[in-house]
Specification:
- By secondary structure, this protein is an all-beta fold.
- It has a single domain, classed as 3-layer Sandwich (Rieske Iron-sulfur Protein), CATH 2.102.10.10.
- It is built from no helices and eleven strands.
- Strands 2-3-4-9 form a four-stranded antiparallel beta sheet, with no helix packed on it. It has a four-stranded antiparallel beta sheet with strand order 5-6-7-8, with no helix packed on it. Strands 1-11-10 form a three-stranded antiparallel beta sheet, with no helix packed on it.
- β3 and β4 form a beta hairpin.
- The chain binds FE2/S2 (inorganic) cluster.
- FE2/S2 (inorganic) cluster binds next to loops.
């Protein structure tokens, strides 16, 4: 668990209403771009072994590629079955075209 800002990806590498994977300190992270804002979460569905970065972004919702469960990318809450557990999300910031993430709570959600 760290409150340091860690480089994740170039902003230009994430298209609007899309998601890309990034690895930060050994953690697989999904980086979303919604209306020009960047969001980050764990890159793992809480329902099964699926990478959310392979799913589809619809507005501020990520749809899991495996069983189409949905989460809000802003706060990670589970929106539709079969998912019920939220995903961990992380703060992001953009500086000079680069996206940085704070891995707060990565190990211990809500800590
Ligand atoms: S693994 Fe994501 S909905 Fe089943």
């Amino acid at each position: 668990m760290s409150d340091a800002w860690i480089y994740a990806i170039d902003a230009d590498d994430v298209e609007e209403e899309d998601v890309m994977p990034a690895e930060i300190e050994g953690q697989e992270i999904a980086i979303y771009r919604v209306e020009g804002q960047f969001y980050a979460s764990v890159d793992r569905c809480t329902h099964g072994a699926a990478n959310l970065s392979e799913g589809i972004v619809i507005d501020d919702v990520i749809e899991c590629p495996l069983h189409q469960g949905r989460f809000c990318v802003r706060d990670g809450r589970a929106l539709s079955a079969p998912v019920s557990e939220p995903i961990s999300t992380f703060p992001t910031k953009v500086e000079h075209g680069k996206v940085y993430v704070q891995l707060i709570g990565a190990d211990d959600k809500g800590g």
